[in-house]
Write a structure and sequence with these properties.
The complex is a heterodimer of chains A (about 250) and B (about 280).
Chain A lengths: L2 E9 L5 E10 L4 E6 L5 H8 L7 E6 L9 H9 L1 E4 L11 H6 L8 H9 L5 H9 L15 H15 L3 E5 L7 H18 L2 E6 L2 H7 L2 E6 L2 E7 L5 H7 L12
Parallel strand pairs in A: 3-7, 3-8, 5-6, 6-7
Antiparallel strand pairs in A: 1-2, 1-4, 8-9
Chain B lengths: L1 H7 L9 H21 L10 H12 L8 H36 L14 H20 L2 H12 L3 H26 L3 H8 L4 H37 L4 H11 L3 H28 L2
Helix pairs in contact in B: 4-7, 4-9, 4-10, 5-7, 6-7, 7-9, 8-9, 9-10, 9-11, 10-11
The chains are: A alpha/beta (about 250), B mainly alpha (about 280).
């Protein structure tokens, strides 16, 4: 799914300007990393792309149409092909891993299937396959409150893999994982994107992961785009300026 | 900041909300005092000797509790009738309250995200549902019972319907508030992924709110048992009607037997609630 962001600004309810006149275009199947300091507006941008927030000014077009002007049905359909990996997975702690993953397809399933799957999971092979890719297959029937933070994040990623969306938005998907695991998870997300020609936008804190895996990097500072370049053109100086307000060294995972 | 503290000789920061909170406490006390005066709140009168004697004489009438076999069979029959009235009433109330509660709670509103194009329309629907809820629970059940006894005659039907009507309003209000006050991030994430409202409730809100919903429902069932006493006074059957008759005959022994049955029923409801809460963790 391609989309274009045109002069989008977003102002929070408390008056804080999260994004100021952002513009960029993305073609279907691209893999982009968004980097920037904490509070620069990365999560807000991803929420705007997911249609969870509405731009205060400006326009975001998904495949050429404005999601806030279409019918409820079309918006629901659009939302079901957008998958979001949250930094802190919004999964009830009493839920089991298998149910949490099956919830990824609620947008596509009819109601009766959702109700039956809640009581007896109708498809256990699908969730198992997704967990296997993330090396968590042995926890299929455990409760989510028995998992560590990194494991729970992987369940969140597994849910999006199960959903098989056309646009994958990952908000700091590996923030709680060790370097080896975060490599694995990012590789799975990129593989998912290339195999189904799905667009992948990931906001990352660790600069080295971004440069290693993503061909295109967008840097955000104070709600504005600092640079939008292919990874080979990103220099050390640009990165230093991006994180200028933080301590001298750049944030890396390893 | 350290310099400021050192120069002013303070060892603490002053709380910016302190004066507001103090004002709030004083205002509450100022409002409470005339209310106590108005209701002639004088509990120390209870301990006057004459009053204690009167209470004593009144209480003696309740002992011993009546344990005639015939009467106990009647009480058993009435207990089953009361349980049936309460359970049927609450079951009907739940049938109405669950959809109403889901409609009213704004954590399941899709058009609220954004907000979407039909936000105004959905707010109107939510407002009308709220209004319906107010009407249902605004009128006390004894008034409904009086009305329905005229329609359906003496007997349990009037009691069941009176409880069903008022309790559907109460249950839907508390259900919607429980759903709004829980952690709404899971259900919101599901709605943003294109899920329908009911599926988002089942997968996103139900796991974390099931305990509260269940325990409040069982508490309301226990209240329905007590409410059936009140409705029984107007002829709607059960233990209430029995107690009404016993009180009119001034038979304290029978009344205390019935009260003991009540106590046992409340105990039963308590244990049921504990059991179900344990199952739902």
């Amino acid at each position: 799914m391609g989309f274009s962001v045109q002069n989008v600004s977003f102002k929070h309810a408390n008056g804080a300007n999260a994004l100021k006149s952002i513009s960029f275009e993305v073609k279907s199947g691209e893999c982009i990393a968004i980097i920037g300091a904490s509070g620069s507006g990365k999560t807000t941008l991803l929420n705007l792309l997911a249609t969870s927030l509405k731009p205060t000014t400006g326009l975001i077009e998904h495949d050429g149409f404005n999601p806030w002007l279409v019918s409820k049905k079309a918006l629901k359909k659009l939302r079901s092909i957008i998958g979001t990996v949250h930094q802190s997975p919004p999964i009830p702690s009493q839920q089991r891993v298998v149910t949490a993953i099956l919830a990824g397809r609620l947008g596509k399933w009819p109601l009766w299937k959702s109700v039956v799957s809640l009581i007896y999971p109708m498809d256990t092979l699908g969730p198992y396959t997704c967990l296997e890719r993330l090396q968590l297959a042995d926890r299929l029937f455990d409760r989510c409150d028995s998992l560590s933070g990194g494991q729970l994040q992987r369940v969140g990623v597994a849910r999006v893999l199960y959903q098989a969306p056309q646009l994958i938005l990952a908000d700091e998907p590996v923030s709680a994982m060790d370097p080896v695991l975060s490599d694995l998870v990012i590789r799975e997300l990129v593989d998912e994107s290339t195999s189904r020609n799905a667009t992948l936008i990931a906001s990352l804190h660790a600069v080295d992961i971004a440069l290693r895996w993503f061909p295109r990097i967008i840097g955000i500072k104070n709600g504005e785009i600092a640079f939008d370049l292919s990874a080979v053109h990103v220099t050390e100086n640009m990165l230093k300026e991006l994180y200028a307000s933080e301590t001298g060294s750049l944030p890396t995972q390893s | 900041m350290a310099r400021y503290l050192a120069s002013s000789g303070r060892s603490q920061f002053s709380d910016p909300r302190a004066s507001f909170r103090l004002t709030l406490i004083i205002v509450s006390l100022l409002v409470l005092w005339p209310m106590l005066k108005l209701t002639q709140f004088e509990p120390w009168l209870l301990f006057n000797f004459e009053n204690l004697e009167v209470i004593g004489n009144f209480l003696i009438q309740f002992f011993p509790p009546n344990h005639d076999e015939g009467f106990l069979w009647i009480v058993a029959g009435a207990t089953i009738e009361t349980l049936a009235i309460a359970t049927a009433g609450v079951a009907l109330a739940i049938l109405i309250a669950v959809p109403l509660g889901l409609i009213i709670s704004h954590s399941l509103s899709i058009s609220r995200i954004g907000p979407g194009s039909d936000y105004l329309f959905s707010r109107l629907i939510r407002f009308s549902a709220r209004f319906l809820m107010l009407v249902l629970r605004g009128i006390p059940e004894i008034v409904w019972a009086l009305l329905l006894v005229r329609v359906f005659g003496l007997g349990p039907t009037a009691g069941v319907l009176a409880i069903a009507i008022t309790y559907s309003g109460m249950l839907s209000k508390v259900y919607s508030e429980i759903l709004e006050s829980g952690n709404t991030l899971p259900s919101r994430a599901l709605l943003v992924s294109g899920s329908g409202r009911i599926a988002a409730f089942l997968y996103g809100l139900l796991p974390s709110t099931a305990q509260e919903l269940a325990s409040y429902t069982i508490y309301r069932w226990e209240c329905a048992i007590r409410a059936s006493v009140v409705t029984g006074f107007v002829g709607a059957g059960g233990l209430g009607q029995l107690m009404d008759q016993s009180m009119k005959m001034l038979n304290g022994g029978e009344v205390s037997t019935i009260l003991m049955v009540f106590f046992l029923l409340v105990l039963l409801a308590d244990h049921l609630s504990l059991l179900i809460r344990k199952q739902l963790t």
